[in-house]
Amino acid sequence: MKQLLILTILSFVSITNAQKKTSLTLKAAINYALENKAEAKKAKLEIEKGEYQIQEIRSRALPQISANGSLNYNPILQTTVIDGAAFNAPGTTIQAAFGQKWNSTAGVSLSQALFDQAVFTGLRAAKSTREFYQINNQLTEEQVIERVANNYYQVYVLRQKLALVDSNLKTTAKVRDIVKGQFDNGLAKKIDLDRMTVNLSNINTQKQQIINSLQLQENALKFYIGMPMDNQIDIPQSEFQVTPAAISEAPNTANRSEYLLLKKQEELLVLQKKSVMAAYYPTLSLAASYNYIGQGPEMPWFNKPSNGVYWSDFSSIGLNLKVPLFTGFGTKAKVRQADVELRSVQEDIKDTQLALDLDYKNAKTQIENSIITLQNQKENMRLADEILKNINNNYLQGLASLTDLLDAENASTEAQNNYTAAILDYKLAEIKLIKSKGELKTLINN
Protein backbone atom coordinates (compact mmCIF):
# COMPACT_ATOMS: atom_id res chain seq x y z
CA MET A 1 0.00 0.00 0.00
CA LYS A 2 2.87 2.38 0.82
CA GLN A 3 4.57 1.70 -2.54
CA LEU A 4 1.26 2.16 -4.35
CA LEU A 5 0.74 5.50 -2.59
CA ILE A 6 4.23 6.67 -3.62
CA LEU A 7 3.63 5.66 -7.24
CA THR A 8 0.31 7.48 -7.24
CA ILE A 9 1.90 10.66 -5.88
CA LEU A 10 4.72 10.51 -8.44
CA SER A 11 2.26 9.96 -11.28
CA PHE A 12 0.18 12.93 -10.13
CA VAL A 13 3.31 15.14 -9.97
CA SER A 14 4.36 14.05 -13.46
CA ILE A 15 0.92 14.77 -14.89
CA THR A 16 0.81 18.15 -13.16
CA ASN A 17 4.23 19.11 -14.53
CA ALA A 18 3.28 17.95 -18.02
CA GLN A 19 0.14 20.04 -17.93
CA LYS A 20 1.84 23.14 -16.53
CA LYS A 21 1.68 25.94 -19.06
CA THR A 22 4.30 28.55 -19.81
CA SER A 23 2.96 32.09 -20.07
CA LEU A 24 4.47 33.31 -23.30
CA THR A 25 4.39 37.00 -24.19
CA LEU A 26 5.64 38.09 -27.60
CA LYS A 27 8.78 39.53 -26.02
CA ALA A 28 9.42 36.30 -24.12
CA ALA A 29 8.85 34.21 -27.27
CA ILE A 30 11.32 36.30 -29.27
CA ASN A 31 13.97 36.24 -26.54
CA TYR A 32 13.53 32.48 -26.23
CA ALA A 33 14.02 32.11 -29.99
CA LEU A 34 17.13 34.30 -30.03
CA GLU A 35 18.67 32.12 -27.33
CA ASN A 36 17.58 28.70 -28.58
CA LYS A 37 16.80 28.74 -32.30
CA ALA A 38 19.47 27.21 -34.55
CA GLU A 39 19.64 30.16 -36.97
CA ALA A 40 20.37 32.61 -34.15
CA LYS A 41 23.02 30.33 -32.63
CA LYS A 42 24.67 29.74 -36.01
CA ALA A 43 24.81 33.49 -36.70
CA LYS A 44 26.68 33.98 -33.42
CA LEU A 45 29.01 31.13 -34.36
CA GLU A 46 29.71 32.94 -37.63
CA ILE A 47 30.88 35.93 -35.60
CA GLU A 48 33.20 33.65 -33.65
CA LYS A 49 34.40 32.08 -36.90
CA GLY A 50 35.02 35.57 -38.29
CA GLU A 51 37.31 36.38 -35.37
CA TYR A 52 39.41 33.34 -36.19
CA GLN A 53 39.55 34.35 -39.85
CA ILE A 54 40.78 37.78 -38.78
CA GLN A 55 43.48 36.13 -36.67
CA GLU A 56 44.49 34.08 -39.71
CA ILE A 57 44.83 37.25 -41.81
CA ARG A 58 46.87 39.00 -39.12
CA SER A 59 49.19 36.02 -38.79
CA ARG A 60 50.51 36.71 -42.29
CA ALA A 61 52.07 39.94 -40.99
CA LEU A 62 53.81 38.18 -38.08
CA PRO A 63 57.10 36.25 -38.18
CA GLN A 64 56.83 32.68 -39.44
CA ILE A 65 59.09 30.34 -37.47
CA SER A 66 59.59 26.65 -38.19
CA ALA A 67 61.90 23.86 -37.12
CA ASN A 68 63.30 21.31 -39.55
CA GLY A 69 65.38 18.21 -39.50
CA SER A 70 66.66 15.52 -41.85
CA LEU A 71 68.64 12.28 -41.87
CA ASN A 72 70.17 11.02 -45.13
CA TYR A 73 72.18 7.94 -46.11
CA ASN A 74 74.10 8.04 -49.37
CA PRO A 75 74.95 4.49 -50.55
CA ILE A 76 76.84 5.88 -53.55
CA LEU A 77 78.50 9.25 -53.25
CA GLN A 78 78.47 11.53 -56.25
CA THR A 79 81.93 12.16 -57.79
CA THR A 80 83.16 15.44 -59.19
CA VAL A 81 85.80 15.80 -61.92
CA ILE A 82 88.32 18.54 -61.13
CA ASP A 83 91.54 19.86 -62.64
CA GLY A 84 94.60 18.28 -61.08
CA ALA A 85 96.39 21.63 -61.09
CA ALA A 86 94.59 22.43 -57.87
CA PHE A 87 96.48 19.54 -56.30
CA ASN A 88 99.88 20.31 -57.87
CA ALA A 89 99.25 17.89 -60.71
CA PRO A 90 98.78 20.06 -63.78
CA GLY A 91 97.62 18.37 -66.94
CA THR A 92 95.76 15.68 -65.01
CA THR A 93 92.13 15.14 -64.14
CA ILE A 94 91.03 13.99 -60.73
CA GLN A 95 87.68 12.31 -60.06
CA ALA A 96 86.87 12.83 -56.38
CA ALA A 97 83.92 11.96 -54.20
CA PHE A 98 82.79 14.66 -51.79
CA GLY A 99 80.61 14.22 -48.75
CA GLN A 100 79.96 11.42 -46.28
CA LYS A 101 77.81 8.34 -46.30
CA TRP A 102 75.67 9.78 -43.53
CA ASN A 103 74.53 13.32 -42.78
CA SER A 104 71.89 14.78 -40.53
CA THR A 105 70.65 18.37 -40.25
CA ALA A 106 68.51 20.14 -37.64
CA GLY A 107 67.69 23.81 -37.53
CA VAL A 108 65.28 26.71 -37.14
CA SER A 109 64.21 29.09 -39.89
CA LEU A 110 62.42 32.44 -39.73
CA SER A 111 60.73 34.55 -42.37
CA GLN A 112 59.18 37.98 -41.97
CA ALA A 113 57.21 39.89 -44.60
CA LEU A 114 58.66 43.39 -44.90
CA PHE A 115 56.60 44.60 -47.84
CA ASP A 116 53.62 42.68 -49.22
CA GLN A 117 50.70 44.67 -50.55
CA ALA A 118 48.37 41.67 -50.26
CA VAL A 119 49.13 41.35 -46.54
CA PHE A 120 48.56 45.05 -45.91
CA THR A 121 45.22 44.92 -47.76
CA GLY A 122 44.19 41.87 -45.77
CA LEU A 123 44.88 43.69 -42.53
CA ARG A 124 42.64 46.57 -43.65
CA ALA A 125 39.93 44.04 -44.52
CA ALA A 126 39.99 42.50 -41.04
CA LYS A 127 37.84 45.22 -39.48
CA SER A 128 35.32 45.07 -42.35
CA THR A 129 35.14 41.30 -42.01
CA ARG A 130 34.22 41.58 -38.33
CA GLU A 131 31.54 44.19 -39.10
CA PHE A 132 30.15 42.01 -41.91
CA TYR A 133 29.50 39.10 -39.55
CA GLN A 134 28.02 41.42 -36.93
CA ILE A 135 25.55 42.87 -39.45
CA ASN A 136 24.74 39.39 -40.69
CA ASN A 137 23.97 38.36 -37.11
CA GLN A 138 21.68 41.38 -36.74
CA LEU A 139 19.86 40.51 -39.98
CA THR A 140 19.41 36.90 -38.83
CA GLU A 141 17.95 38.07 -35.52
CA GLU A 142 15.49 40.32 -37.36
CA GLN A 143 14.41 37.41 -39.56
CA VAL A 144 13.87 35.27 -36.46
CA ILE A 145 11.86 38.07 -34.81
CA GLU A 146 9.63 38.53 -37.86
CA ARG A 147 8.94 34.80 -38.22
CA VAL A 148 8.20 34.35 -34.51
CA ALA A 149 5.89 37.40 -34.37
CA ASN A 150 3.89 36.23 -37.40
CA ASN A 151 3.34 32.75 -35.97
CA TYR A 152 2.67 34.13 -32.51
CA TYR A 153 -0.22 36.25 -33.77
CA GLN A 154 -1.62 33.37 -35.82
CA VAL A 155 -1.79 31.26 -32.66
CA TYR A 156 -3.59 34.11 -30.93
CA VAL A 157 -6.24 34.37 -33.67
CA LEU A 158 -6.93 30.64 -33.55
CA ARG A 159 -7.28 30.82 -29.77
CA GLN A 160 -9.74 33.67 -30.23
CA LYS A 161 -11.71 31.64 -32.76
CA LEU A 162 -11.76 28.71 -30.35
CA ALA A 163 -13.10 30.94 -27.57
CA LEU A 164 -15.80 32.28 -29.92
CA VAL A 165 -16.87 28.85 -31.09
CA ASP A 166 -17.08 27.70 -27.45
CA SER A 167 -19.35 30.64 -26.69
CA ASN A 168 -21.50 29.90 -29.75
CA LEU A 169 -21.63 26.26 -28.76
CA LYS A 170 -23.01 27.11 -25.31
CA THR A 171 -25.58 29.50 -26.74
CA THR A 172 -26.72 27.03 -29.40
CA ALA A 173 -26.92 24.23 -26.84
CA LYS A 174 -29.21 26.38 -24.67
CA VAL A 175 -31.46 27.15 -27.65
CA ARG A 176 -31.50 23.47 -28.61
CA ASP A 177 -32.57 22.57 -25.06
CA ILE A 178 -35.36 25.16 -25.25
CA VAL A 179 -36.56 23.77 -28.60
CA LYS A 180 -36.40 20.25 -27.19
CA GLY A 181 -38.53 21.31 -24.23
CA GLN A 182 -41.02 22.91 -26.62
CA PHE A 183 -41.06 19.77 -28.74
CA ASP A 184 -41.63 17.57 -25.68
CA ASN A 185 -44.60 19.79 -24.78
CA GLY A 186 -45.94 19.75 -28.33
CA LEU A 187 -45.11 23.41 -28.96
CA ALA A 188 -42.42 22.83 -31.62
CA LYS A 189 -42.02 20.59 -34.62
CA LYS A 190 -39.53 17.75 -34.86
CA ILE A 191 -37.90 19.42 -37.86
CA ASP A 192 -37.12 22.40 -35.67
CA LEU A 193 -35.40 20.16 -33.14
CA ASP A 194 -33.51 18.35 -35.93
CA ARG A 195 -32.31 21.64 -37.41
CA MET A 196 -30.98 22.75 -34.04
CA THR A 197 -29.27 19.38 -33.54
CA VAL A 198 -27.62 19.64 -36.96
CA ASN A 199 -26.54 23.20 -36.23
CA LEU A 200 -25.03 22.10 -32.91
CA SER A 201 -23.21 19.23 -34.64
CA ASN A 202 -21.79 21.61 -37.24
CA ILE A 203 -20.46 23.91 -34.52
CA ASN A 204 -18.83 20.93 -32.78
CA THR A 205 -17.17 19.95 -36.05
CA GLN A 206 -15.98 23.52 -36.53
CA LYS A 207 -14.58 23.50 -33.00
CA GLN A 208 -12.62 20.30 -33.65
CA GLN A 209 -11.20 21.76 -36.86
CA ILE A 210 -10.05 24.86 -34.99
CA ILE A 211 -8.49 22.71 -32.24
CA ASN A 212 -6.54 20.76 -34.85
CA SER A 213 -5.40 23.94 -36.60
CA LEU A 214 -4.43 25.48 -33.27
CA GLN A 215 -2.34 22.46 -32.32
CA LEU A 216 -0.51 22.59 -35.64
CA GLN A 217 0.10 26.34 -35.32
CA GLU A 218 1.32 26.02 -31.73
CA ASN A 219 3.74 23.29 -32.83
CA ALA A 220 4.97 25.59 -35.59
CA LEU A 221 5.48 28.40 -33.06
CA LYS A 222 7.42 26.09 -30.74
CA PHE A 223 9.60 25.06 -33.68
CA TYR A 224 10.31 28.66 -34.67
CA ILE A 225 11.39 29.57 -31.15
CA GLY A 226 13.27 26.31 -30.52
CA MET A 227 10.99 25.09 -27.72
CA PRO A 228 10.41 21.37 -27.01
CA MET A 229 7.10 20.15 -28.46
CA ASP A 230 5.95 18.73 -25.11
CA ASN A 231 5.87 22.19 -23.51
CA GLN A 232 2.45 23.81 -23.08
CA ILE A 233 2.16 27.53 -23.83
CA ASP A 234 -0.33 30.19 -22.83
CA ILE A 235 -0.62 33.54 -24.61
CA PRO A 236 -1.87 36.40 -22.39
CA GLN A 237 -4.90 38.23 -23.73
CA SER A 238 -3.49 41.59 -22.65
CA GLU A 239 -0.82 41.32 -25.31
CA PHE A 240 -3.26 42.24 -28.06
CA GLN A 241 -4.52 45.71 -27.46
CA VAL A 242 -4.92 47.10 -30.96
CA THR A 243 -3.32 50.54 -31.22
CA PRO A 244 -2.71 52.08 -34.65
CA ALA A 245 0.98 51.94 -35.51
CA ALA A 246 2.78 55.21 -36.04
CA ILE A 247 3.00 55.99 -39.73
CA SER A 248 5.82 58.46 -40.15
CA GLU A 249 7.83 59.72 -43.06
CA ALA A 250 9.54 57.16 -45.26
CA PRO A 251 12.45 55.63 -43.31
CA ASN A 252 16.07 55.82 -44.39
CA THR A 253 16.74 52.53 -46.16
CA ALA A 254 20.46 53.03 -45.51
CA ASN A 255 19.77 51.93 -41.93
CA ARG A 256 18.21 48.59 -42.91
CA SER A 257 20.29 45.50 -42.18
CA GLU A 258 19.76 44.15 -45.70
CA TYR A 259 21.24 47.32 -47.17
CA LEU A 260 24.07 47.57 -44.65
CA LEU A 261 25.07 43.97 -45.30
CA LEU A 262 25.35 44.56 -49.04
CA LYS A 263 27.32 47.79 -48.51
CA LYS A 264 29.73 45.94 -46.26
CA GLN A 265 29.99 43.20 -48.87
CA GLU A 266 30.79 45.89 -51.45
CA GLU A 267 33.53 47.22 -49.17
CA LEU A 268 35.04 43.75 -48.84
CA LEU A 269 34.94 43.23 -52.61
CA VAL A 270 36.79 46.52 -53.12
CA LEU A 271 39.49 45.25 -50.77
CA GLN A 272 39.47 41.90 -52.51
CA LYS A 273 40.11 43.63 -55.83
CA LYS A 274 43.01 45.55 -54.26
CA SER A 275 44.36 42.30 -52.86
CA VAL A 276 44.37 40.75 -56.33
CA MET A 277 46.03 43.86 -57.79
CA ALA A 278 48.74 43.46 -55.15
CA ALA A 279 50.20 40.75 -57.38
CA TYR A 280 51.54 43.60 -59.55
CA TYR A 281 53.65 44.90 -56.66
CA PRO A 282 57.05 43.52 -55.61
CA THR A 283 57.38 41.69 -52.33
CA LEU A 284 60.25 41.88 -49.87
CA SER A 285 60.83 39.53 -46.98
CA LEU A 286 63.50 38.77 -44.42
CA ALA A 287 64.76 35.21 -44.09
CA ALA A 288 67.03 33.80 -41.38
CA SER A 289 68.06 30.31 -40.36
CA TYR A 290 70.30 28.51 -37.92
CA ASN A 291 71.21 24.86 -38.47
CA TYR A 292 73.37 22.13 -37.03
CA ILE A 293 74.78 19.39 -39.29
CA GLY A 294 76.44 16.09 -38.52
CA GLN A 295 78.43 14.06 -41.12
CA GLY A 296 80.39 10.84 -41.09
CA PRO A 297 80.66 7.24 -42.24
CA GLU A 298 78.29 6.20 -39.46
CA MET A 299 74.83 7.42 -38.60
CA PRO A 300 75.49 10.80 -36.89
CA TRP A 301 73.04 10.33 -34.09
CA PHE A 302 74.74 9.45 -30.81
CA ASN A 303 78.18 9.19 -32.47
CA LYS A 304 81.34 11.22 -31.75
CA PRO A 305 84.45 12.36 -33.64
CA SER A 306 86.17 9.23 -32.39
CA ASN A 307 83.79 7.37 -34.74
CA GLY A 308 84.48 9.74 -37.62
CA VAL A 309 81.30 11.79 -37.07
CA TYR A 310 81.67 15.54 -36.86
CA TRP A 311 79.05 18.15 -35.98
CA SER A 312 79.08 21.83 -36.92
CA ASP A 313 76.64 24.73 -37.07
CA PHE A 314 75.89 27.25 -39.77
CA SER A 315 73.42 30.12 -40.24
CA SER A 316 72.26 32.65 -42.78
CA ILE A 317 70.40 35.97 -42.88
CA GLY A 318 69.12 37.49 -46.09
CA LEU A 319 66.51 39.47 -47.95
CA ASN A 320 64.26 38.01 -50.62
CA LEU A 321 62.93 40.34 -53.28
CA LYS A 322 60.38 39.22 -55.84
CA VAL A 323 59.43 41.51 -58.70
CA PRO A 324 56.62 40.23 -60.96
CA LEU A 325 57.39 40.88 -64.62
CA PHE A 326 55.02 38.71 -66.63
CA THR A 327 52.32 36.30 -65.40
CA GLY A 328 50.70 35.40 -68.71
CA PHE A 329 47.92 37.94 -68.11
CA GLY A 330 46.65 35.78 -65.24
CA THR A 331 46.66 38.63 -62.74
CA LYS A 332 44.83 40.87 -65.18
CA ALA A 333 42.09 38.24 -65.59
CA LYS A 334 41.74 37.89 -61.82
CA VAL A 335 41.44 41.66 -61.42
CA ARG A 336 38.68 41.76 -64.02
CA GLN A 337 36.83 38.93 -62.29
CA ALA A 338 37.00 40.82 -58.99
CA ASP A 339 35.72 43.94 -60.76
CA VAL A 340 32.75 42.01 -62.20
CA GLU A 341 31.86 40.72 -58.71
CA LEU A 342 32.06 44.27 -57.39
CA ARG A 343 29.80 45.68 -60.10
CA SER A 344 27.36 42.81 -59.56
CA VAL A 345 26.93 43.57 -55.85
CA GLN A 346 26.54 47.26 -56.69
CA GLU A 347 23.56 46.33 -58.86
CA ASP A 348 22.19 44.27 -55.96
CA ILE A 349 22.48 47.35 -53.73
CA LYS A 350 20.42 49.46 -56.16
CA ASP A 351 17.78 46.75 -56.50
CA THR A 352 17.64 46.15 -52.74
CA GLN A 353 17.19 49.86 -52.04
CA LEU A 354 14.28 49.94 -54.49
CA ALA A 355 12.77 46.81 -52.90
CA LEU A 356 13.06 48.30 -49.41
CA ASP A 357 11.26 51.45 -50.56
CA LEU A 358 8.55 49.24 -52.04
CA ASP A 359 8.23 47.32 -48.77
CA TYR A 360 7.57 50.51 -46.86
CA LYS A 361 5.02 51.83 -49.36
CA ASN A 362 3.13 48.53 -49.37
CA ALA A 363 3.32 48.16 -45.59
CA LYS A 364 2.00 51.69 -45.10
CA THR A 365 -0.93 51.07 -47.47
CA GLN A 366 -1.68 47.71 -45.87
CA ILE A 367 -1.70 49.06 -42.32
CA GLU A 368 -4.00 51.93 -43.29
CA ASN A 369 -6.44 49.54 -44.97
CA SER A 370 -6.21 47.10 -42.06
CA ILE A 371 -7.16 49.80 -39.55
CA ILE A 372 -10.25 50.71 -41.60
CA THR A 373 -11.23 47.05 -42.01
CA LEU A 374 -10.70 46.37 -38.33
CA GLN A 375 -12.93 49.26 -37.29
CA ASN A 376 -15.66 48.17 -39.74
CA GLN A 377 -15.54 44.55 -38.63
CA LYS A 378 -15.68 45.54 -34.98
CA GLU A 379 -18.83 47.57 -35.63
CA ASN A 380 -20.32 44.72 -37.69
CA MET A 381 -19.66 42.30 -34.85
CA ARG A 382 -21.38 44.61 -32.38
CA LEU A 383 -24.44 45.00 -34.62
CA ALA A 384 -24.64 41.28 -35.36
CA ASP A 385 -24.51 40.52 -31.63
CA GLU A 386 -27.34 42.99 -30.94
CA ILE A 387 -29.44 41.51 -33.75
CA LEU A 388 -28.85 38.00 -32.40
CA LYS A 389 -29.97 39.03 -28.89
CA ASN A 390 -33.12 40.71 -30.22
CA ILE A 391 -34.09 37.79 -32.45
CA ASN A 392 -33.35 35.33 -29.66
CA ASN A 393 -35.74 37.25 -27.37
CA ASN A 394 -38.35 37.44 -30.13
CA TYR A 395 -38.01 33.73 -30.79
CA LEU A 396 -38.58 32.90 -27.13
CA GLN A 397 -41.70 35.09 -27.24
CA GLY A 398 -42.88 33.47 -30.46
CA LEU A 399 -42.33 36.64 -32.53
CA ALA A 400 -39.54 35.22 -34.75
CA SER A 401 -39.07 31.96 -36.59
CA LEU A 402 -36.35 29.42 -36.03
CA THR A 403 -34.96 30.26 -39.47
CA ASP A 404 -34.53 33.86 -38.41
CA LEU A 405 -32.70 32.73 -35.29
CA LEU A 406 -30.36 30.41 -37.18
CA ASP A 407 -29.62 33.10 -39.74
CA ALA A 408 -28.83 35.58 -36.97
CA GLU A 409 -26.52 33.05 -35.28
CA ASN A 410 -24.67 32.39 -38.53
CA ALA A 411 -24.36 36.12 -39.20
CA SER A 412 -23.00 36.72 -35.69
CA THR A 413 -20.48 33.88 -36.02
CA GLU A 414 -19.33 35.16 -39.38
CA ALA A 415 -18.95 38.70 -38.01
CA GLN A 416 -16.88 37.42 -35.08
CA ASN A 417 -14.63 35.36 -37.38
CA ASN A 418 -14.20 38.32 -39.70
CA TYR A 419 -13.19 40.48 -36.75
CA THR A 420 -10.54 38.02 -35.55
CA ALA A 421 -9.27 37.67 -39.12
CA ALA A 422 -9.06 41.47 -39.30
CA ILE A 423 -6.99 41.50 -36.11
CA LEU A 424 -4.57 39.01 -37.65
CA ASP A 425 -4.33 41.05 -40.86
CA TYR A 426 -3.68 44.16 -38.81
CA LYS A 427 -0.97 42.53 -36.69
CA LEU A 428 0.78 41.05 -39.74
CA ALA A 429 0.62 44.43 -41.45
CA GLU A 430 2.00 46.05 -38.30
CA ILE A 431 4.98 43.68 -38.35
CA LYS A 432 5.66 44.51 -42.00
CA LEU A 433 5.52 48.23 -41.24
CA ILE A 434 7.87 47.86 -38.27
CA LYS A 435 10.23 45.78 -40.42
CA SER A 436 10.15 48.31 -43.28
CA LYS A 437 11.24 50.99 -40.79
CA GLY A 438 14.07 48.77 -39.52
CA GLU A 439 12.60 48.67 -36.01
CA LEU A 440 11.92 44.98 -35.40
CA LYS A 441 14.20 45.06 -32.34
CA THR A 442 11.64 47.36 -30.65
CA LEU A 443 9.43 44.28 -30.19
CA ILE A 444 11.85 43.07 -27.53
CA ASN A 445 12.99 46.43 -26.22
CA ASN A 446 9.53 47.62 -25.15
Automatic annotation (TrEMBL):
Which InterPro entries does the entry mention?
Answer: OMP_efflux, TolC-like
Chief place of localization: membrane
Molecular function GO terms recorded: efflux transmembrane transporter activity; porin activity
- Coiled coil feature spans: 360-394
The source's domain of life comes to Bacteria
Q: Where in the cell is it found?
A: Cell outer membrane
Q: Got a GO cellular component term for this one?
A: efflux pump complex
One Pfam family linked to the record: OEP
What UniProt keywords apply to this chain's record, in alphabetical order?
Answer: Cell outer membrane, Coiled coil, Membrane, Transmembrane, Transmembrane beta strand, Transport
Per the record, the similarity remark reads:
Belongs to the outer membrane factor (OMF) (TC 1.B.17) family.
Quote the protein name from its UniProt record. Answer: TolC family protein
